[in-house]
Amino acid sequence: MTTDPREQYKRQAAQAAVQYVRDGQIVGLGTGSTARYVVLALAERVKTGLSIRGVPTSRETAELARRAGIPLIEDVPPSDPHACEWDGDCSLDVAIDGADQVDPGLNLIKGGGGALLKEKIVASAARQFIIVVDDSKRVPVLGGAMPLPIEVVPFGWGCTARLIETVGGKVTLREREGRVFVTEAGHYILDLYLERIPAPERLEAQLNMIPGVVETGLFVRRTDLLIVGTPRGVLQEARSAKR
Ligand code: A5P
Fold it and tell me: Which of 57, 121, 222, 230 allows an S-S link to 135, with CB 3.0 to 4.6 Å?
């Protein structure tokens, strides 16, 4: 049992988040230590009769959800092999995920765990995108100690890195245990260190113009509801206008 109070805050916020899930919904399941609490809390509701289907954003989350008893869409192949897995209309009812940083406009940095590509696809398909964090993730402005993960094609990644640095900051190729980190989609991650990201929407557009960039960890104006675990209890903040 951990004594880190942040774990408790994450768990409490996750429990609040799963109350938004309704019977029959298709639910995007995020990745990371906070999303793990969400999956476990959702599994508790499934045990007591909630009927949902999950769309996991990583193999790690898929395994956890299966073990916990949450049915996954990917385990039931669609009858039409050309149809989108998500009920033909490519939309999810709700997605719940964690974040590495949250700014006052509820813009995010995500991708610390390397699952940003699926996370962004799921977030953009979700009618409601709920972010669950402990209060250490809230920042006045994105950036600083937290690098911005950028998923890139391995071919020519060094050139892509140089082009990214023309936008500003310093790039490092992500490694794990002495090897280049490879995402589930077979890409690399470049972590971009920037002191401040005061205009995340502009930066996202600039980065998306660079050949070789697959996706960035900037989630701009996507959060519908932020749920924060704090020492004073769970706080919730809704975004007023959607996208
Ligand atoms: C995974 O790729 C990330 O986007 C995570 O959602 C993010 O890093 C938050 O993770 P923790 O909840 O573990 O801090």
Answer: 230
What element of type H or E holds 170? strand 170-173
Nearest to 121 by CA among 156, 84, 146: 84
| Gap from CA of 212 to ligand 1 centroid (Å) | 23
| Shortest-distance atom of ligand 1 to CA 132 | 12
Q: For ligand 1, is residue 147 a contact (CB within 6 Å)?
A: no
Residues 68 and 29: their CA atoms lie apart, in Å, by 13
Is 195 noted as a catalytic residue in this protein?
no
Residue 127: in which H helix or E strand, if any? strand 126-134
Element spanning 43, H or E: helix 33-47
Rg of the chain, C-alpha, whole Å: 18
Is 136 near ligand 1, meaning CB less than 6 Å away? no
Instruction: Write out pLDDT tens, residues 88-137.
Output: 566 899 999 999 999 999 999 999 999 999 999 999 999 999 999 999 99
Q: In terms of pTM, does the model score above 0.85?
A: yes
Closest CA to 135 of 3, 1, 2, 7: 7
List CB contacts of 67: < 8 A, sequence separation 6 or more. Answer: none
* CB-based contact 137:101 (threshold 8 Å): yes
